Each structure stands twice: as structure tokens, then as C-alpha cells.
Amino acid sequence: PVCLTAHMDHPGFVTDRMTGKRRVRAFWRGGVPREYFVGSGVRFFTAEHGWVRGRVRSVRTVKRLGQLRVDTASIDVERPVESGTIGMWDFPDPRVRGRRIYARACDDLAGAAAMLCALDELVRRDHACEVYFLFTRAEEVGFIGAMAAARRKTIPPRCLVVAMETSSERVHARIGDGPILRVGDRASVFTPAVTAYCHRVARELAAVDRSFTFQRKLMDGGTCESSAYCALGYDATGLCLALGNYHNVDRTRNRLGPEYIDLLDFHNVVKWFVELARAPHPYRGRDADLDRQLAELRKTYAPLLRASRRKPR
To answer: How many other C-beta atoms are found inside a 10 Å radius of the C-beta of residue 50?
Structure first.
């Protein structure tokens, strides 16, 4: 059976303590270049006062995994904020423009939402199938939730794992060209047989649904949970949506901005999930199409190779 996974967190702040009447110290969780912090607007989500807005005054950096990263920030706020309050950049509510949706967070909220849409569709169609949906936490600091699920066997070992992500748009992988079968990331190449299985399902879906398009690409802009699942012994691959303003960094305007995805890409990945869940073919742990091609080539040309051998003198 297939286990679809997505993470629920996004780069953001967690308050530590008030350091002044209107100033809070907050931990930063995630990856955003430090030059985008100072002066940027922040909003904290509080139960008592709703949104509490602020502005980053300064940051403290530390070196992790060979890179200088933001560790904490000093933020001027409208009113005191309790310890443990979650915050992120101050952007408006989601909005749709044409085929694109812009939001404070698409990574990986879009992936989690697509999985829930697929689950709704399976229930609506009354499909009987064995499929697992895993929603993880703490991905942005290093796949902590995914690794915990793998080590504790929360994911049944017999599952093939398909991790859903949003991944920064690349020159060869454009927003609007369809959801992407991710053959690998910056750290590794995923399980070839699982990638081939997902590819076969997509090809067969495209043959009967002309509105379904997809891509097959190496998305090496970053590392995702699929690498962790593979490293911990699972057969795994990844699907993703091409993402604009990855981690809220608008490099075109050199400022922070809302992330965005294509809505048709989103709808098509939901279709892909549904077909994977229905398991049209059993997963054998091998690329069946490649096996057939190699067998045919061997049958055709191996006799020529044997006939061309020269006898030793």
C-alpha cells in the first residue's frame, strides 16, 4: 500500500520571552537568509488578542551544518506576547489571481491540503482501498517528525512512501506545467522502483484524462523528507508542486513575499493521489517497464554479441 506524507509546519517564529515593555525575543525555526529579517513585518497568532503585529529589530546568528543561520530575533511588538506564541511574516490572507493562489504559506500547506482533498474524493467515490496519510511536524528544522515516524514504525514497513512537497520553481520545472514526480533532491536520488511506479500511474491517468499533465524532474533546490525515508530503510519517492517565492523569499524584488502555486497543478496532484491510493498495479519493488525493455533488448541482441566473439588463437 501507499503512504502519502506531507509536513504541516512552515518557517516561523516561536516567542521566548519579553525583553522590554514592547519587545520580544523569539526563536527562528526554518531556513530564510538573514538579510531579509531586519525591518520586516511579523504577526503573532494569540488567543486573547488575535493578531499581534511587530517588526524585526535585530537578529542573532549561529553556525549550523556549515552555514550561518538566524537563531533568534529581537522584535518590536504592539503589545506583550506570551512565551511559546507562534508567529510568521506579516502577509495578507490567501487570495486567488487567475490560476494562482498566493498565501503566507504554501510549503507545505498545499501538500497537506491536497492529501485531504484526495481523502475526501476517495470517500465520495466509496473506493475500498488500503492507503495511509501521514502529516508530520518539525520538517523545517530537519525532518524530525518524519524520522520519528520512520524509526517508530508509525509507517508500516511494507508501505511505499510518497512524500508530498512544494519545491522552488526551477528553469526546467515551471509553475503551471503540472505536478512533479521528484526523482531526487539535493541530497539523494529516491527509490527508482517507487518513482517508476508513480510514473506508470501518471502515464496511465494522462492517457484517459486529457486535462491531467505532469512532469518528471530532479528537484535539487533543497532536501526533503523523501531522503530521510530512504535513508531509514523505506522504499520512497516524492511528488511536488512548483512553488513561487520559496520560503517567502521574493528574489525578483529582493524582499519577502507570499508564496504561490498554480491551482491546476494542485487539482492534478489530487487526481494523482487518488489513482495511487486505488493501487491499479501491485508494487513489486522493481521497475516492471524497464525490466521488460531490457529483456527484449537482450533477447534481440545477445545472440549477435555471442556470434561476434572471436575464438582465442
So the answer is: 9
> Cα dihedral angle (118, 165, 108, 111), rounded to 10 degrees?
-10
pTM (global) more than 0.85:
yes
- Do 39 and 255 contact (CB within 8 A), yes or no? no
* CA 156/CA 132 separation, integer angstroms: 9
* Cα–Cα distance for residue pair 93/103, rounded to 1 Å: 6
Joined together, the cell numbers standing for residue 250 give 521574493
E strand or H helix at 122: helix 109-125
DSSP 66: T
pLDDT digits (tens, 9 = 90+) for 162-204: 999 999 999 999 999 999 999 999 999 999 999 999 999 999 9
> What is the extent of the structural domain holding 205?
2-7+93-289
Say if residue 97 is in the same domain as residue 207.
Answer: yes
In a domain, 102, yes or no: yes
Q: Is 54 helix (H, G, I), strand (E, B) or coil?
A: strand
Identify the pLDDT of residue 246: 97
Same domain, 107 and 84: no
**111 in Cβ contact with 164 (< 8 Å):** yes
Alpha helices in the chain (DSSP H): 109-125, 144-151, 192-208, 225-231, 263-278, 288-307
